[in-house]
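User: Predict the complex.
Assistant: Input components as received:
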Amino acid sequence: MILIGAMGSLLVLLGFLIGSALEPGQGGVVGAIAALGVWGLLLFIALAGGDQALLLGARAKQVSKQDLPRLWNVVEEMTIASGLNVMPRIYVIDDNTPNAFAAGARPDKAVLAVNTGLVKRLNRDELQGVIAHEIGHIRNLDARFLTIAAVLVASITIVADMFLRGFRYGAGMRRIPRLPLPVQLGILAGAAVVALLAPFLAQMLYLACSREREYLADASAARFTRYPEGLASALEKIALAPPPPASVNRALAPLYTVNPIRGLAGAGLTSTHPPTEERIRILRGMAGGAGYVDYEKAYRKIVGGRGGIIGKRTLSVEEGVPSRQPSPEAEDRADRLEIIRQLDALLGRLGSLLLLSCACGVQIRVPPSLERDSVQCPRCGRQHAVPRASLPEAVPAASAPGGPGAPVPPAPMETGAPPTGSSLAPVPPRSRLLRYERRNNGWESFRCACGKALQLSPAFDAPSMHCPSCRMEIEIVPKGR
Amino acid sequence: MAGLLIVLGIIVIIGAWLIGLYNSLVRLRNQVRNSWSQIDVQLKRRHDLIPNLVETVKGYAAHERNTLENVTRARNQAVQATGVPDRAKAEQDLSAALGRLMVVVEQYPDLKANQNFLALQEELSSTENKIGFSRQFYNDSVMTYNNRVQSFPANIIAGMFTFNTEPFFELEDRADRQVPQVSF
């Protein structure tokens, strides 16, 4: 509320100064009223049709209970836990990035949009945490609050912009002989400075608002679910998910700064700015409690400062609220596959780093640019050979598959991309395999002849694999054979 | 004259304050009643699901008659129970009977693969969650309401207009006070 007030007075001040600059005397008041008028108009448009426009833009589809019973049930559960009178309408967006947002200016007409990525990746407790967070936004009237704030930002930007543009072309400037020139110039300069600074200031205020609201929704989620760990672990999964591909939305993001729609999107899970890691630490620091009091304590401990985020009145009526146990949803096969997929994505993000574990406990990451055959451990100084798949030199030709004169065995990959990279080892003829002898049977990484780093998991037991970059087939020899 | 006006002004302010207090009590009491009806809805839903579940299980595990009969009996008792404490007890028995049924079901892989059963299972476990969450909200509302009714100065108004404290929906065993869970 204070922040909205601050932004509102900024807008009025801006209008007043611009008005005085254009028309000293009466102009100030007219300017201020005009600025408020712009805000009112934009606000009306945003509140009347903002959420529909947003859903349309995101290509969201409304779902019924038959489509996604689990999601539907979780939303209904959280509606009950929060005491909302009307269950929000559920929309699904076909997007693999795990995310969700809530919109709607009134709690009884709220909308909840969930990406398919979220439904697929999260288990029930985690989904419950995320949905509770969004319902918390609805309950705390954040969509409305942030829409008002975002529209204020937009109006300030628009008014300042109009003035600066007019200023540049010298339009609408009139010299009034009644005032001495220096005073006029002074007012003009003041208006220009405020017009330049106001949009940034407003943006900062808006972000502060939206961050505070995220924490508040986290606290509500913990209280509704009585299980802060659910949201914490969901946030962790969301943060670990591969970053979204650069999409149209992202390219358009700068436009959205002056778009009222952004305020509604601001209630989304990752689009606002408290660091996710901090939110997770607060949720995990609630020490077995799940109430507002516990969240407030954890928040003060981790973020520091005297100022909490939850009103004193709310805190004073609450009694001890214990956390519950995790729900015994069995991790079935689909879940396990999902975990493997996530691990895969994680390994993919490690990219071409080779991971070596030294006996002293240090994990050495070898970048692909390192051309040497060995690295030294930075702690204990041991030398490690860089593991590479190599041509089986010691193997006599006779024992190689087929032998020299025999028909060529099926080539591993006909359409394989040609090997790339500058540090190319001599590429062996297709009939031969590269060979890598495992050093241990745990996690292990080695480099293909083309320079690509490959990771082996403890579970890997196939006799060979293809290098994903040069498509060369590599024979994997288990340790101790 | 001025003194009279001041006295009148004070009376008006106190009157407005008392009206506000009374209205807040009414609002809280209505919230309690409303959240109780939400529990009611969910409990009914569970009662409606059970015959269906029993039929499905019978198709695969007919000779588990004892367990099935226990569930049906517990359900019928729960349907007939009245009053908050009695219903809490009956529903708790029903939860226990359902828990035993689910343990038995573990031994029938065919049943566990049945689509109909899977849908029922999701429905039932979600209903259990909803019962838990509505009870949670009911108890929170009761706590806020009771705190208000018993604390000064609202207790004076509460006494005049007979706002009584409401009972909590409590389960006897503390370990059971978490959201009830059926483990499948």
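The helical segments of chain B are 2-60, 65-80, 84-105, 109-113, 115-150, 154-160.
Let me know if you want any component modeled separately.
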